[in-house]
Description:
This protein is α/β, with parallel strands linked by helices. The protein folds into 3 domains: 15-56 and 287-433, 4-hydroxy-3-methylbut-2-enyl diphosphate reductase, catalytic domain (Cobalt-precorrin-4 Transmethylase, domain 1); 58-148, Rossmann fold, CATH 3.40.50.11270; 151-284, 4-hydroxy-3-methylbut-2-enyl diphosphate reductase, catalytic domain (Cobalt-precorrin-4 Transmethylase, domain 1). 37% of the residues lie in helices and 17% in strands. The chain has 15 helices and 19 strands. It has helices spanning 15-26, 29-36, 58-73, 89-97, 131-140, 150-164, 178-185, 201-211, 217-223, 234-237, 251-269, 274-277, 286-301, 315-324, 379-393, and strands spanning 7-8, 40-43, 46-50, 79-81, 101-102, 121-124, 143-146, 168-172, 195-198, 241-245, 278-280, 305-309, 330-333, 345-348, 355-358, 367-373, 416-418, 425-427, 432-433. It has a 5-stranded parallel β-sheet, covered by helices on one side. Strand 6, helix 5 and strand 7 (143-146) form a beta-alpha-beta unit.
Amino acid sequence: MNQPTEVIRKSFGLKEEVKPQLEASYHSPLIEKIKANGFSLRAGRLTFRLAQEFGFCYGVDRAIDYAYETKAKFPGRRIFLTNEIIHNQRVNAKLQEIGIQFLYGPYASGFSIEDIQKDDVVIVPAFGAMVNEMSELQKKGCVIVDTTCGSVMRVGKRVDSDGRDRFTALIHGKYDHEETRATSSRSLQYDGGSYLVVRDKPQAQLVCDYIEGRTSKEVFMREFRKATSPGFDPDRDLERIGCANQTTMLSSESLEIANMLQESMKRRYGAETLADRFRHFDTICSATQDRQDAILKLAAEGVDLMIVVGGYNSSNTGHLVEISQQYCPAYHVKDAGCIVSQSLIQHKRVFSPETMETSPWLPDGPLKIGITAGASTPNRVVEEVIKRIIEVAGKNRSGDLVCINCGQILEERQCKARCTRCGYFEDCSDGMSDHPNQL
């Protein structure tokens, strides 16, 4: 039997060594220029306004750093990720390119935990891992590098505490999301531990209805058949509730759900018993909140449309689109390839796993375009999306090359050229223009 291994949760001190790789794959000089210019960029008739908080958060940065450092630290060993390190196709593909294999998920390489050997290295992603997975890995005696985000760990500790005190963990989240699967599993470490995952306010209302006797057990269990702990009994397990949330959910909705449940428990059991029956701690991470606040601010300033860049399975990115659509047309794109032409864009439908096409999407005339990105989106991808929008705006719907500022048809596009009609000067050497009003 192998000795249980220590879990490594800190840097190997190789950040400077892997820095060139990280910058080559994810850094964007253009995005840095836009930030320095007041988060604004004008390109002809297009004005891009960048949200003041967007893209990689600290937890994501840390997880990616540790993955690259792990590869540098153990060059001769097999290295595995239990699942996607974050929800971004570009990042996971890059990790595959440098030789890191995946045990589970869309990038699975055909191995499982059963195949792990003592000399292997296993990286736990930013979402964390289920308790039973961590236990099995530790029994293998392999090196474990845990990149779980600090905010996710705080949720896990809260669920752990609730389980120990015989409170059911009621988690606002998505039952099949890696983070929620990891945190909910912590409640099962204790005899009688239980959990319930609630996706949104309608589902929360159904929980309230059951607590107050307005719906049947059959209806309740049919709705939550995939979102409860084994053997969940709402008659027993809804008597004491501890609310938490997946860190990437919409913060305002999480608060509303907690308030709904608190009031329901108060009506059912009385205000005097509430402290013994209900707990709530806000576990939305600060980076998620900052990005949601930034998109609200950007929308309030006034933009004609919003482009939200991020993986299609990214929860926090989806919520940024949800917020944006309340103010203007908003499109969730995963990369520059989704910008097909000036008239056609491919994007993910809000509240659905489906993708769709919209045409037309980029109106004529002067436009203010808001840009933001989920916490797992590299700046390089955001740069590519901005450049692609500028590129398609330089062609009319007939495919003719046009001045991006005034729309005059050009015979050819040169790297450095001035429009004869409006005087707009385009310099494509760095992907941008050099008009006096431009960056």
